[in-house]
Automatic annotation (TrEMBL), chain A:
Keyword Oxidoreductase: no
Short name of any one Pfam family annotated for the protein: NADHdh
Localization: Cell membrane; Membrane
Keywords, alphabetical: Membrane, NAD, Transmembrane, Transmembrane helix
Signal sequence interval, chain numbering: none
Bilayer-crossing regions: 6-33, 69-91, 111-134, 173-196, 228-247, 253-271, 283-306
Record-stated family: Belongs to the complex I subunit 1 family.
Protein name from the UniProt record: NADH-quinone oxidoreductase subunit H
Native species: Actinocorallia libanotica
Automatic annotation (TrEMBL), chain B:
Species annotation: Actinocorallia libanotica
Lineage: Bacteria, Bacillati, Actinomycetota, Actinomycetes, Streptosporangiales
Compositionally biased region (Basic and acidic residues): 118-136
Protein name as catalogued: Uncharacterized protein
Region annotation Disordered: where it falls in the sequence: 118-154
Length: 307, 385
C-alpha cells in the first residue's frame, strides 16, 4: 500500500510544494485586496509572482559589517528545511521516505527554523533584525513544547512514529475527531513555526520587518519563499497526522491528500487574518499554563484509550 | 523584447511603496494612501522591501537628510516620488512615472554605473554611517573597539542586573505607522527600551489638517457641524488604522483606512454607518487585541480621553468615532469651541519618555500608536518646547 522511496516522488515533491506555497501567497493577496475594497481583487493573485520577479531583478544588499555568511546560511536554511521536512509527508500513499522515526525527523527539521530566523536577524547587523531574532526565540520557547506534545499524541494514538502508519491507523476515525485539543494545538504551532498571522511578530512591521528588515533581492526571495513553503508543508503534515491521510471516497489517495492540505492551508491563511499579532511576553505564559496542561491531558486520554 | 525586460515590466506593476510624510503633509499623505489603496499598491515598512519611496509634503533639511539616507538603502530598480499636492491630477502621473521608471532596467544600469564611478572617485562615503533614521542599525557605545569603522556596542546592566549590549536606536522620523515629525532616541538592551528622549522635526506645529474646520469656523467662515464631524471621524479612523497596523492586524487596519478614505471622499453617511459598525464590532470583540493592549502606557492625569492604558484609549477612540459618525448629517453651524471635545492627537509628546522607559520595542510602538500625537498641532509640541 505505502510506497516510500518512489523515484518520481522526489521529482514531484518540489513542484507540489512550490505550487502550494504559491497558492497560499496568492490566496492571502486576494483576501488582502478584498478587505481593502480594491476593485477586481482576484487579480491580486498574481502579486506574489510579481514580487518574486522584482526580487530576482534586485541585487542582494547588506549593511556595513553585516555577517554575510550567517545571513546567507539562514536565508537558504529556511526553504531547505521546508523541503527536508516535506520528505516525510505522504502524498496519498507515496512519499520520498518513510523512516521509523518520521515524526521525529519532521520535528528536527522544523526546529532548525529557530536557527534560520536567528541567523538572518543577527547576521543583518541591524537593531530591528536582532529584535526579530529575539522575538522568534521567545516564540520558539512558547510553542515548541505544546507542538511536540501534539505530535507525540498522534504518534501515541497510532503507536508508531512512522508517518505512513499514523495515517493508516485512522482508517476508522480521524485523529482530529477524537484528539481535538492536539489538532488545535498543532494548527496553532503551524502558524508559529512559519511565523504567520497572529504569530508573525518576529517579522512584524512594527520593527520595520523584524528579522527580514535588511535582506533584499534573492536573499529576501529565499526567505519569504521558505516561509510560505514551511506554512504549506506544516499544513500538509496535519493531513497524515490528524485527517486520515489520503483516505476518502471516489478520488485517488494523492488527490485527497492535496484537497485536505489545500483546505487546511487556505483555512489557516484565512483565519490568521482575523487576529492581531500576539506578543510573547504575554502569550508565553498562556502557552505554558494553558496549552501544555491541555495537550498533556489530551495525551493522557489518548494513552488510556490505546491501553 | 528580451526575457529580462519582460520580467522587469511584469515586476513593475503594483510595486511596494514606502511612504514618508513631512510635517504639514497630512493632506497629501491621505490622498496618496487613498490612491495607492485604489490601485492596489502595497505599503511596506522597510526600505529593503520597497521599490518606490513616496515623500508626502515638503520636508525640512533634517528630514530631507534622513530621507536621503533611507533612499540610499533602497536597492535598484527603484523610484522616488515627491508628492506635494493632494489632487489626483498631480498624484496619478507621478505613480505612472514611477511604474515606468521601474520597468526601464537600462536606466538603472546607467545609474548604477554612475554611482559606482562616484564611489571609486569619492572613496567610501557610506563608510561609518552607523545608523539610518528609523532603521536603527548597530548603535555605538562607549568602549569595545571598532568593526568596519563602527564602534562596537557598549555594555550596561539591564533590568535583571545582567550585563547586556546597549544599542542606540532612533525611532522616526522615517518609520511606517509613526507620528509625522516625531523622533524618539532610545537606548535599547535586547528589545527593551531603557531610556527614551523625544525630539521633533523642523516644521512641526504649523497647523493641522485635522483641525481645519474649527480653525475656519474661528475665522468666521460658515462651516457645517457635519463637515467637522466628518473630519473628526476620519481622524479617529486614521489613528485606529495606525494602531491596528502596529498591533499586527493588517485586515482591520486596512478596513479602517478604507473607511477613512471614503469619509474624506464625502461618501453618504448611510453607506458608511454599517461598515463602521462592522469594523467597530470586530475590534471590540477581539479579546486578543484587548489582551495585548492591556496595561500598556498607563496614564492617570491629563484629559479624560487619555486616562487608562492603550486598550482604554482604543475603546475611547471607537466611542469618539461613533459619536462623530452619528453627526455626519448635522447642517447646523459649527461652534469653534466644540473642538475641545476630546479630539485625539492633542497629546503632548513630553509624556512619551516616561511611558516608553522599560517597555519592549513592540509595546513602545503600541504606546506611541495609541496616543498618536498630531505634531502639526501646536498643542502637541508646546509642552515639550
Amino acid at each position: 500500500m505505502r510506497e516510500p522511496g518512489a523515484v518520481w516522488a522526489v521529482v514531484v515533491l518540489p513542484p507540489v510544494m512550490a505550487g502550494l506555497a504559491l497558492g497560499a501567497a496568492g490566496w492571502d493577496s486576494v483576501l488582502a485586496a478584498r478587505d481593502t475594497g480594491r476593485p477586481r481583487a482576484l487579480r491580486a493573485a498574481a502579486d506574489p509572482l510579481r514580487e518574486a520577479a522584482r526580487l530576482l531583478l534586485r541585487p542582494p544588499r547588506t549593511v556595513v559589517a553585516a555577517d554575510r555568511l550567517l545571513l546567507r546560511a539562514g536565508v537558504v536554511l529556511l526553504p531547505a528545511v521546508a523541503l527536508l521536512a516535506a520528505m516525510v509527508v505522504p502524498l496519498g500513499d507515496v512519499m520520498v521516505m518513510d523512516p521509523a522515526v518520521g515524526v521525529v525527523w519532521f520535528n528536527a527539521m522544523e526546529v532548525a527554523v529557530w536557527a534560520a530566523v536567528w541567523l538572518v536577524g543577527w547576521g543583518s547587523n541591524s537593531a530591528f533584525g536582532l529584535v526579530g531574532g529575539y522575538r522568534f526565540l521567545a516564540q520558539g520557547l512558547a510553542y515548541e513544547l505544546p507542538h511536540m506534545f501534539a505530535l507525540i499524541t498522534a504518534a501515541l494514538g497510532a503507536q508508531s512514529l512512522r508517518v505512513g502508519e499514523i495515517a493508516q491507523a485512522q482508517q476508522g476515525l480521524w485523529f482530529a475527531v477524537w484528539m481535538p485539543v492536539a489538532f488545535a494545538v498543532y494548527l496553532l504551532s503551524v502558524l508559529a513555526m512559519a511565523f504567520w498571522g497572529p504569530l508573525a511578530h518576529p517579522v512584524a512591521d512594527d520593527a520595520a520587518g523584524g528579522a527580514v528588515v535588511e535582506p533584499s533581492g534573492p536573499d529576501r526571495l529565499f526567505f519569504l519563499a521558505g516561509r510560505y513553503a514551511l506554512l504549506a508543508v506544516a499544513s500538509a503534515f496535519s493531513v497524515p497526522l490528524f485527517l486520515g491521510g489520503g483516505a476518502g471516497p471516489l478520488l485517488p489517495a494523492w488527490a485527497w491528500s492535496l484537497v485536505k492540505t489545500a483546505v487546511v492551508l487556505g483555512g489557516l491563511v484565512w483565519a490568521a487574518r482575523r487576529f492581531p499579532v500576539v506578543r510573547m511576553d504575554r502569550f508565553a505564559e498562556a502557552a505554558w499554563t494553558v496549552l501544555i496542561p491541555a495537550v498533556l491531558l489530551q495525551m493522557l486520554v489518548v494513552g488510556i484509550v490505546v491501553l | 523584447m528580451g526575457v529580462i525586460s519582460r520580467l522587469a515590466r511584469f515586476a513593475a506593476v503594483r510595486p511596494p511603496v514606502f511612504v514618508v510624510t513631512a510635517p504639514g503633509g497630512t493632506a497629501v499623505r491621505l490622498a496618496v494612501e487613498a490612491v495607492l489603496r485604489e490601485r492596489g499598491w502595497r505599503s511596506v515598512a522597510s526600505p529593503a522591501a520597497c521599490s518606490v519611496l513616496v515623500v508626502c509634503g515638503r520636508p525640512g533639511p533634517d528630514l530631507e537628510q534622513a530621507i536621503d539616507r533611507v533612499w540610499n538603502e533602497v536597492p535598484p530598480p527603484r523610484a522616488r516620488i515627491r508628492a506635494v499636492a493632494p489632487e489626483r491630477e498631480h498624484l496619478l502621473p507621478l505613480l505612472e512615472q514611477a511604474e515606468h521608471e521601474l520597468a526601464d532596467l537600462r536606466r538603472h544600469r546607467v545609474l548604477r554605473a554612475e554611482e559606482n564611478l562616484a564611489e571609486e572617485q569619492g572613496g567610501h562615503q557610506e563608510f561609518g554611517h552607523e545608523h539610518h533614521d528609523g532603521h536603527g542599525k548597530s548603535g555605538h557605545g562607549h568602549h569595545g573597539g571598532k568593526v568596519a569603522g563602527l564602534d562596537m556596542a557598549g555594555q550596561g546592566a539591564d533590568r535583571d542586573g545582567l550585563k547586556l549590549d546597549v544599542l542606540h536606536v532612533q525611532l522616526g522620523p522615517v518609520l511606517a505607522d509613526w507620528p509625522t515629525g516625531l523622533v524618539v532616541r532610545t537606548e535599547m538592551q535586547g528589545d527593551v527600551v531603557q531610556r527614551a528622549e523625544v525630539e521633533t522635526c523642523a516644521g512641526v506645529g504649523g497647523g493641522s489638517f485635522w483641525t481645519e474646520p474649527w480653525a475656519a469656523a474661528r475665522d468666521g467662515e460658515p462651516v457645517a457641524r457635519g463637515a467637522a464631524e466628518r473630519r473628526r471621524a476620519a481622524r479617529c479612523l486614521d489613528t485606529l488604522g495606525r494602531l491596528l497596523s502596529v498591533a499586527g492586524w493588517p485586515r482591520a487596519a486596512g478596513q479602517a483606512r478604507w473607511l477613512r478614505d471614503d469619509l474624506l471622499a464625502d461618501h453618504p453617511p448611510e453607506r458608511l454607518a454599517p461598515r463602521f459598525a462592522q469594523l467597530s464590532d470586530s475590534v471590540l470583540r477581539s479579546r486578543t487585541l484587548r489582551w495585548m493592549l492591556r496595561d500598556l502606557g498607563p496614564i492617570d492625569a491629563a484629559s479624560a480621553l487619555l486616562v487608562g492604558d492603550a486598550a482604554d484609549r482604543l475603546y475611547a477612540l471607537l466611542v469618539e468615532a461613533r459619536t462623530a459618525m452619528d453627526l455626519l448629517g448635522d447642517p447646523t453651524p459649527l461652534d469653534p469651541a466644540d473642538e475641545a471635545r476630546g479630539v485625539p492627537g492633542a497629546v503632548p509628546v513630553s509624556l512619551l519618555p516616561g511611558l516608553l522607559a522599560g517597555a519592549d520595542l513592540g509595546a513602545a510602538r503600541l504606546i506611541v500608536a495609541s496616543l498618536d500625537p498630531d505634531l502639526d498641532r501646536p498643542a502637541a509640541v508646546a509642552v515639550h518646547a
